[in-house]
Amino acid sequence: MDPGVENNVKAVRRSKEEKKVLRKQIKASHTLLKHEGISTTSQPTKSLVVANGGLGNGVTREDLSAALKEMGELETLIMHPHKPYAFVTYRSDESAREAHIHLNGHKLQCGENGVTLYLSFVDSVTCEEEASVPLPEGLVLVEDFVSPEEEALLLAAVDWSSTNDDVPGIPQECLPVLERCVKNKHVNAMPDQLTVNQYESGQGIPPHVDTHSAFEDTILSLSLGAQTVMEFRHPDGRLVPVVLPGRSLLVMTGESRYLWTHGITPRKFDVVPACDPQSPADVTPDPGIYSNLTLNKRGTRTSFTFRKIRHEPCRCAFPSACDNQGAPSAPSASSTSPPSLPCCHADAAHLEEEYVHRVYDAIASHFSSTRHSPWPRVCHFLNSLPPGSVLADVGCGNGKYLGVNPEVVAVGCDRSSALIQICAERGFQAFVSDALSVPLRTASCDACISIAVIHHFSTQERRLAAVRELMRLLRPGGRALIYVWAFEQEYNKQKSKYLKHQNREHPGNHSPTKNTLEDSQVPQGKSSIHTSRPLEDNCSPVDEVRDVGKVTDGKLSVHTNRTAFNTQDLLVPWHLKEGKRRGEEESGECGKKDKRKEKPRKTSGNPDPSSGFDSNMSPGSGQDARDATHSANSKPSGDATQTSTSSLKSESESGPAPVFHRYYHVFQQGELERLCCQVAGVKVRSTYHDQGNWCVILEKDKSINAM
Length: 707
Fold this sequence. Notes:
It is found in: Cytoplasm; Nucleus. Helix content is 21%, strand content 26%. The chain is of the alpha+beta class. It has a seven-stranded mixed beta sheet. It has a seven-stranded mixed beta sheet with strand order 22-21-20-23-24-36-35, with helices on both faces. Helix 7 packs parallel to helix 9.
């Protein structure tokens, strides 16, 4: 080819690429304005907004800063948690112009992920000073409490391959650490019980409070290996994330031990300060302040949690949270008598409050960790909406559908305040609301979705009212998508994923009356509890896994997970446990599962013959970890009582987690369409069966102005 022609071809090609980048840059600017209220300008300034360069895209401060610094000296770099953009201010206008020219359309590689940056000028950037949030009262974090050499000795002291009968007591390697804790007045007396957990990247624990009656006041948690973020939450809603570096000691006493829940959200990256803040030891950086945040990839973390077994009733200053002082137990956990079908509106509201609303608030973190993959046909509906459409997700859960189509204005609502908090932390617009009374204007939405919600209403009248409320929100011509769990889990000779997972969840055991270790929620691998006396009654294997079949004497049956339904109104168990994701009872509510290695769990203890403990937790949690529990003075001869328990607890406990029950009305074929057709002005556009769910797409009659 003639050199001149070749140069012309390259120029045309380059021009096309530049035009493509310009189009995407303009589109990114419009998206920022519409969804975030960020206005850009065509006039060069020192400040730019970097679309796709945010923590929410998996971009670290270090990677983005390195790319930006190639264009000139930076003045500030602000990265908001969970947001897909960042703000940068250069020292000079010239450097900002260079970045605008050379970094627009630039592919930035961040670990395994790659993002394309689009930069636009902004008039100014407000840089708030970093604030500090006080740690919960009674919580102390001591960094570098053990040396790297001590860390290696402690990790080597845990033998994960040992059998149930030969787990020793507290390892000798722990004694110097405990003596230092006593000497430094972190604890008044030597602990006599130890729990060891190991967490791989992406694993965590739901929020919980260690049971007051089981252990004394002070709880010591030593973090070894990779750092993580533990979240403390007050009953009034205050949230304090605490970064736990490797080799640090966390001391929980008083209010932080008895009143605040603590947990670790299952994820592979944490939003953390970019460097160690020069701040007092009793404060933590506020995650709402953005001038110095980055992402930290989690690694393997092992925690050693030391406690003192309690021998007298707890008399703490927090009776509302104390099981010894009459605090209410976890909702619907290990209920001995199933409720009856409601016979009036008040009964229905009470049933749903107890067996739907309270349950989802209690299991929110665990539930959210199993709901991360949007269903394809729901995504197809959302992506078919025209740009600028207003979408209401009624019963949005953790918000997994709110970000599917960035071209629509999406707002969600849910009855669970805990799930709405998760939505807020992910940057979604959502609020607490009952699905029967959504505080949005009539005919204000172009589309509504109700995914796995209406089957939780316990009467025909309330299910009908839920459909009416969806139609009220729609403008004339607007569409709604509804999913409900199907009675027919086998359809057109195809089993749903819910039934297909039966063999995986219950290998070799399909009997609803047989309580194997797996049915009792003891994890795969080795598991044992050694105490000087049998565990209390509430640690006995639960019997909620039975399916009593048809409604008897008006009582609701308790369904056997991963089996076909034989009644429409029932209670479905939710086992609050992370390790095996046993919470994913419905194919209609589970996406792709994380494929992770199962870790063996070791628990043992043989304390002073006069001691014993009821290792329970309120409200309870599961764990994505392998767990070893040791007690002082134990003998390796295995002469202690060995008892299988019904389920797992938290990082700080080895007792059983509660089993929660959620009410469901599973829909038979044609039932959902008949229900919807009772609402005036509704047209059923399509109906289908999708992996164990009945689904309809509705349209509001264009002649209907208000409902």
